[in-house]
Specification:
The protein has 458 residues and is an alpha/beta fold. The chain has two domains: 21-276, UDP-N-acetylmuramoyl-L-alanine:D-glutamate ligase; 280-457, Class II aldolase/adducin N-terminal domain (L-fuculose-1-phosphate Aldolase), CATH 3.40.225. It has 14 helices and 18 strands. The strands form four sheets. Strands 14-11-10-15-18-17-16 form a seven-stranded mixed sheet. The chain has a six-stranded mixed sheet with strand order 3-2-1-4-5-6. Helix 5 crosses helix 6 (167-179) and helix 10 (281-298) packs parallel to helix 14 (444-457). The longest helix is centred in the middle third of the chain and has 18 residues, at 281-298. The two termini are 39 Å apart.
């Protein structure tokens, strides 16, 4: 650890920053997963400064809502005026408004609420109602003031009177909401059946759809709050609407997959997933560099394929190859041992990165991988590893699987035949240049140890 900086005895100049200010008008969630708490976490994670006007105090947790108390309307208005009177608010999002009086209050202040994103919160993820029945009609006036309205399928059905059970119906509901006066509508597809989640953005200029694989989890508490807050913050930064929506949907997809296992209920989405992942890039890159140095020192020449060896490491919440650090140009054999062709950078690997990401689909704890050549001696040495070895036959790869998807197909095939997470995956396409062994590990030191174990045994 670096020693502390000693005081010079002089007064230091301040270095202020000016993030865009985002206001959330919503209810409080004592469980921390949704409402004001989720909004402020997300706004700050996306680079904004979060301010709030609390409409209602709820007693809730991951299992449901145990009670709620609406604040006096004058107190809600005082909060809105306090924020807009002092801060240069760049965007606003609404969540739980609870009654028609609160909705009308927001409409009265709409002229002072730029980039207004309306999340028409009606029912909690647990099924508890959060909006008085008489307030449903009042939403029409607020929608007419919205830059964007973000209902899920059930909320869109209430607002438009249209059953939203497929993407086509979602598009029609979005058009209905735009006709009601909204600048745009994002009809979320999480409640629409299907293997993929299709979110539909409708504006006067056209329709844009965003497709994501569905995550097999019930831990979606706070998902709507997180998405609308992220969009509002992106708009506050000056992003155009499709970019703001697309980036925010990507964030939410990761937040749902890497959800927070807290409480006795299904848990909550991970509001800070992107921030935590970005913070892990440097230590992940350093871990790969440490592995490369160790393998060079150990001279693992016998394990390096003719095409070179790739060592790769994924950030904790990596979803794409640009979140995987690897040796640029691979590690090559030389007359004097092995050496990396260039340094370590993110996005340097394709095949190994895709294989590593495919392994993480089965076990997200897996973060590091290295590819080795396949010989009879190396295959025999795999038996000395502490863990299972899975195999697949590349000759069985279906014709419709592209070359880009071959690594993922092989890993999926191997995991499907393995009892638990394998420490090594073998592609049996013959022995030598065309064969490969992929070593996997959750920890970089374990990865290096496995490589050295095979090298000693081969």
């Amino acid at each position: 650890m670096w020693p502390p900086v000693k005081s010079s005895g002089m007064t230091r100049a301040d270095a202020p920053v000016t993030p865009p200010v985002v206001l959330t008008v919503a209810g409080s969630d004592s469980g921390g997963g949704a409402g004001i708490q989720a909004d402020v976490k997300t706004i700050e994670a996306c680079g904004g400064f979060g301010t709030s006007a609390i409409t209602s105090i709820t007693a809730q947790n991951t299992t449901g809502v145990q009670g709620q108390h609406l604040l006096p309307i004058e107190q809600i208005e005082a909060q809105i005026e306090a924020v807009t009177g002092d801060f240069d608010v760049a965007a606003v999002k609404t969540g739980m408004l609870a009654t028609s009086d609160v909705i009308d209050l927001v409409v009265e202040h709409a002229a002072d609420l730029p980039n207004l994103v309306v999340d028409p919160v009606m029912v909690a993820a647990s099924g508890d109602r959060l909006l008085a029945a008489e307030a449903e009609d009042a939403y029409e006036t607020l929608i007419a003031e919205a830059t964007l309205v973000t209902p899920n399928a059930d909320e869109a059905a209430v607002l438009t009177g249209r059953d939203v059970d497929d993407p086509e119906a979602a598009e029609q509901a979005g058009r209905d909401l735009v006709e009601m006066g909204a600048d745009s509508a994002l009809v979320k597809g999480g409640h629409v059946p299907g293997d993929a989640v299709v979110d539909t953005l409708v504006t006067e200029d056209g329709v844009t759809t965003f497709r994501h694989d569905r995550i097999d989890t019930e831990a979606t508490h706070g998902s709507g709050c997180t998405l609308s807050s992220a969009i509002a913050t992106q708009l506050a930064h000056g992003d155009d609407l499709p970019t703001a929506v697309g980036d925010s949907i990507d964030l939410l997809a990761s937040a749902v997959r890497y959800n927070l296992d807290v409480g006795e209920g299904p848990g909550a989405v991970h509001h800070l997933v992107q921030t935590r992942n970005d913070a892990a890039r440097h230590p992940t890159g350093e871990a790969v560099e440490r592995a490369v140095s160790a393998l060079v020192k150990a001279d693992v020449s016998t394990l390096v394929p003719e095409r070179g060896m790739t060592v790769a490491g994924a950030t904790p919440y990596a979803e794409t190859p640009d979140a995987v650090a690897a040796v640029e140009g691979r590690i090559a054999r030389t007359m004097d041992g092995v050496r990396p062709n260039r340094g370590v950078r993110f996005g340097a690997s394709t095949t190994v990165a895709r294989a590593l990401l495919a392994a993480r689909e089965h076990d997200p704890a897996v973060r590091f991988a290295v590819d080795c050549r396949l010989t009879d001696a190396i295959e025999d040495a795999l038996a000395s590893l502490d863990g299972s070895v899975a195999t697949y036959d590349p000759d069985e790869q279906p014709d419709e699987v592209s070359d880009d998807a071959a690594a993922q197909w092989g890993i999926d095939r191997a995991f499907g035949t393995s009892d638990g997470t394998p420490v090594a995956v073998v592609g049996r396409e013959g022995v030598g240049t065309d064969g490969r062994v992929m070593l996997l590990a959750a920890d970089v030191d374990d990865l290096v140890s496995r490589v050295e174990t095979i090298g000693d045994g081969a």
